[in-house]
């Protein structure tokens, strides 16, 4: 290794390590948000109880990699089980998950969240390494900083969910694809395939990371393409099968769950996204929130620059971004977390345009650097400002506990009405209110009925299977003293009430809200400072508290 290469390697390693450490510190702050406690037996994140339960169904050290659940690949669950083994060995976890205490479950979920934080921090460092040596150091640092403080990535790096891990593996694969275009070594093709396989073993669409090999395919002789791409593809498929062997050992369940995911993607998520823009437009808004509006605009400029200057090393990034965006854009599911694999690519484009502006002789280019500074800070959304706001919320007492404490302090002999089954969005009026939906309704209902001071009312007909949300009989028959509901429960209904009020799905909501305004006063709105996007509001929904009017008849 030459002296110049050695110095470059040392510089890149040190700066990448610095970005990793700073990113990890940022992500660890607030990592204890919403964990199971004496006031809520399950996490306030709706997916974490399921992910924790599935994690207990695998044991890589014993060769058991069949969780019986294949909505995602098994790699995420296997990695987290290994982390749980460490927690258990320290005496902080539950060796028998069927009798795990709330505290033990909280410790294991927290450990899984830490792994997400580590993955998010590695993603930042890899973004820097992609840029380092290919653009000016200033641009490389700007690109890494942009993804380091991206609010969506930071928030979800504190969750026990597969999204950030999958984005990290995608980014590693894309980086290996760039290295493969710059070196004749076969190892980069191998690593590109392995990382793409791990990405797919975490979330299936991660296999698209193989598009990152485009610059390498352009650089080599045509006769070498079948051999080298075949190696990468073979490594990807082998890694996927090793990480998700249910493809063969439990084919029926794998096919069932994989088919469900395909159906779910095309059918939507209840009314959550009803009345929203098509995916191609909705995901632009998601990127603006998760990354930043100004940074999104700069990334578009970076794309123009890459095409104009024929930056071949970027071709794989752009090819992946295009394929991935086309895939998620046609789906009916429009979660913010779906755009995460795109954010490192956009950050690289931001870094490229900033580097160009920094080195350009024309002083007019300096405006681009100023825009990058403002975008990273969070002007017009994203950046440091939104990340700081969400982090502060995740360090405070959760609003669900705050509202429950207020209702309990004034609730002796009174009643609180719920418009839907208690879940993660419900104020913690009783510990089981946050219980996941896989807990049988019978047990969740028994817990609700046992709640006292205040009592918790929810209209359930004689046949519980016939219960509906926003049942007006809660008001006409039970007449609770207080009604409380969240933006999660109004989600979709409010849009349809404006766009298609004749839609039969919205009729119960309209009947309920009409009677509610007649008999109740809106006492308080606990407004959320988080953008009203479903999986950004987990940490802070908006809540509406209504109290019965004095002239309303008593129950």
In words, what does this structure look like?
- There is one protein chain.
- This protein has 555 residues and is mainly α.
- 57% of the residues lie in helices and 4% in strands.
- It has helices at 3-28, 48-55, 75-89, 102-131, 137-148, 151-156, 163-182, 187-202, 214-219, 225-243, 246-249, 251-267, 279-290, 293-308, 315-329, 342-359, 366-377, 383-395, 399-409, 441-450, 473-478, 487-490, 493-499, 507-519; strands spanning 415-417, 455-457, 482-486, 520-526, 543-548.
- Strands 2-1-3-5-4 form a five-stranded mixed β-sheet.
- α4 (102-131) packs parallel to α7 and α7 (163-182) packs antiparallel against α8 (187-202).
Strand content: under 5%
Alpha-carbon Rg, integer: 25 Å
Number of helices: 24
Helical amount? 55-70%
Poorly predicted spans: none
- How is the biggest beta sheet arranged? 5 strands, mixed
Structural class by sheet pairing and helices: mainly alpha
Mean pLDDT: 94
First CA to last CA: what distance?
83 Å
Q: Strand arrangement, largest sheet?
A: 2-1-3-5-4
Shape: globular
- Name the helix and strand elements from N-terminus to C-terminus, one letter apiece: HHHHHHHHHHHHHHHHHHHEHEHEHHHEE
Give the number of DSSP strands.
5
